[in-house]
Design goal:
Helices cover about 0% and strands about 40% of the residues. By secondary structure, it is mainly β. It has 1 helix and 24 strands. The strands form 6 sheets. Strands 1-2-3-4 form a 4-stranded antiparallel sheet, with no helix packed on it. Strand 9 and strand 10 form a beta hairpin.
Length: about 300
């Protein structure tokens, strides 16, 4: 099976996240995690660095920038690595492993921006998305794990993103061509076991990212690789009066992740071999220039 076929038929990948300080872009690649240094404005720089390890399906940095979490659906496990103050993996501490009960993670993972919580897409179709608490040592734990969604088709094909204010969780469903929004309580749990809003869209939405000012939601079409921008209403719900707009000239076939710089200056979209970057208007979240595609460094097995 080719990489493109794997991307279309397998779980949604979200192999791209930005350190909350905006210093590093973490990119999943076949032999581990590639760390791309970012300039003060968010522009990718060189040289990149590797952290060897399992090929992830999902990558998420917690809101404190203390840990990097990755999912391994094949092994039905969640791994994490402690980061130092500079955002690099701490020396002398390797990948640690958590094997959750049940069917395990199925691709995407995202961290709450201010609470010690992870949201994980489950492989079990009866529990599409779960909320996983983190202990004081950042270790995931079974105690307090709750199910956010018990409905929906092919749950392990879903992408996840959280509003920067922690008020809403966004779940993409490419099979159903919908964007789903969960209202979150102050403790980060959902108000109910179903979405507050389900919005049908023409594309098949895959990887997601939210503008840090909460202006819009970005997503990649799993079938074509086109990037789209869906406006958010005040409070975090999708603006149902406005259809998602395709970003001009921004097409990333086989997209494996979408991320936004914490200052809202750049939008990133990755594949196994490239990184596409476009500068953004920090107020509106719309592109202010043409996207540029950069080759990612390669590491042979």
């Amino acid at each position: 099976m080719s990489r493109d076929e794997e991307q279309r038929d397998g779980p949604v990948r979200s192999e791209l996240t930005v350190h909350p300080e905006g210093t590093w872009l973490y990119v999943g690649e076949p032999h581990g995690i590639l760390r791309v240094p970012l300039g003060q404005d968010g522009r990718p720089e060189a040289p990149a660095e590797w952290t060897p390890g399992i090929r992830p399906y999902g990558v998420a940095a917690d809101g404190t920038g203390t840990c990097l979490y990755v999912t391994d659906p094949a092994g039905e496990r969640l791994l994490w690595h402690v980061l130092d103050a500079a955002g690099r993996p701490a020396r002398g501490v390797g990948w640690q492993v958590y094997t959750p009960p049940g069917a395990g993670p199925a691709g995407t993972v995202v961290a709450h921006p201010s609470l010690p919580l992870l949201y994980v897409a489950d492989r079990d179709e009866k529990t599409a998305v779960s909320c996983l608490p983190l202990g004081a040592d950042h270790r995931p734990g079974d105690d307090g794990t709750t199910t956010l969604w018990v409905r929906g088709t092919a749950p392990f094909h879903k992408g996840l993103a959280v509003h920067p204010a922690g008020t809403h969780l966004y779940v993409s469903d490419p099979a159903g061509r919908t964007l789903n929004v969960f209202a979150l309580r102050a403790d980060g749990r959902a108000d109910s076991d179903g979405p507050s809003l389900t919005h049908r869209v023409p594309p098949a939405p895959g990887p997601l990212a939210v503008h840090p000012a909460g202006e819009c939601l970005y997503f990649a079409d799993r079938e074509t690789g086109t990037l789209h921008r869906a406006a958010l209403a005040p409070g975090g719900l999708l603006d149902q009066d406005t259809d998602p707009e395709q970003l001009p000239g921004f097409t990333v076939p086989g997209c494996t992740g979408v991320a936004v710089h914490p200052r809202g200056t750049y939008l990133y979209a990755a594949t196994a071999i490239t990184l596409a970057v476009t500068e953004l208007n920090t107020l509106t979240g719309r592109p202010s220039g043409r996207p540029v595609t950069l080759p990612l460094p390669r590491r042979r097995a």
